[in-house]
Amino acid sequence: MVMLELLRMQAQRQAELLSNCVLALARDPLAPEQLNACAAAARSFEGTAQTVGLEAGAELARAMEECCAAVRRGEIELQRELIGMMVQAVDLLDCMARTSPTAPPLLRAIDGEDEDDFEEPYLESARHSKGKPVLVVDDSEETRELERKLLKYQGYEVVVAADGIEAWYAVLTGDFDLVLTDVEMPLLDGIELTRRIRRDPRFERLPVLIACDKGNLQQRWRCFDAGANYYVIKGTFHDTLVEAVATLIGPARK
What are phi and psi of 117, to 5 degrees? Predict the structure, then answer.
């Protein structure tokens, strides 16, 4: 029983490593070392999954490994849609690895590699700042910059992400008091980003604020259904954004 639990823990660590590899691949799809890392991580998960009887997980990991090999051979092109499918596949593998409800939290150190190997320098400002760190996510540079300036002016420390994939990577490697995200974004939209945050016990209490389109009631209900704490309407940021953030996490200074 102890050995089985250790193998389950190993599967969880390998699923997290594979997630990091896919996220890194999304950030730099032309880097051959990222493809190799993804393939190696999928192969490791496949072996452990077979040992603990996760046949479906092993098959899915094998398919990811074959996909990476096909990209390396030039048989298929690594487009954004394919990366999005790989991200969803990693989510499934992670769920499969969490077969025990009492399993301990994910461990960061994998085969001697330190979690700092996956840190991003631009997140250091959020980690060590005096103001409360907020992650702003929007594929519109204009909107992103407006939100950043409004929050920074009030004393919040702001880190920005241009899409859901980049945002999820930031959540995994950063330390934020709140996530402010748009709804419609490429690869991983704000709804799925929120669901992913809520599924992970490490971030289940992380406040999520979503920027919705004016007059779109269905969009607001989808946000709440995904686990968002609150919403603001686009076009009213000057009047409502800072107030909403302060309501959820308090003033900028701790």
Answer: -60, -20
User: pLDDT tens across 39-64, in order?
Assistant: 888 888 888 777 777 777 777 778 87
Q: In the chain, where are the structural domains located?
A: 2-99, 122-249
Q: How far apart are CA 143 and CA 5, in angstroms?
A: 46
DSSP string over 16-46: HHHHHHHHHHHH-TT-HHHHHHHHHHHHHHH
Question: Which segments within the chain are labelled E, that is strand?
Answer: 133-137, 157-161, 178-182, 208-212, 230-233
Give me Rg for the CA atoms of the chain.
19
pLDDT digits (tens, 9 = 90+) for 158-192: 999 988 888 888 898 889 999 999 999 877 889 99
d(CA 240, CA 149): 14
Question: What residues have CB less than 8 Å from 108, skipping those under 6 apart?
Answer: 16, 114, 115
Quote the CA–CA distance of 224 and 232 in Å, as a whole number: 12
- Cβ burial of 104 (10 Å; 0-12, 13-18, 19+) is exposed
Question: In terms of residues, how long is the chain?
Answer: 254
CATH architecture observed for domain 122-249: 3-Layer(aba) Sandwich (3.40)
Interstrand relation of 133-137 and 178-182 (parallel, antiparallel or unpaired): parallel
CATH number of 2-99: 1.20.120.160
User: Are the C-beta atoms of 10 and 45 separated by less than 8 Å?
Assistant: no
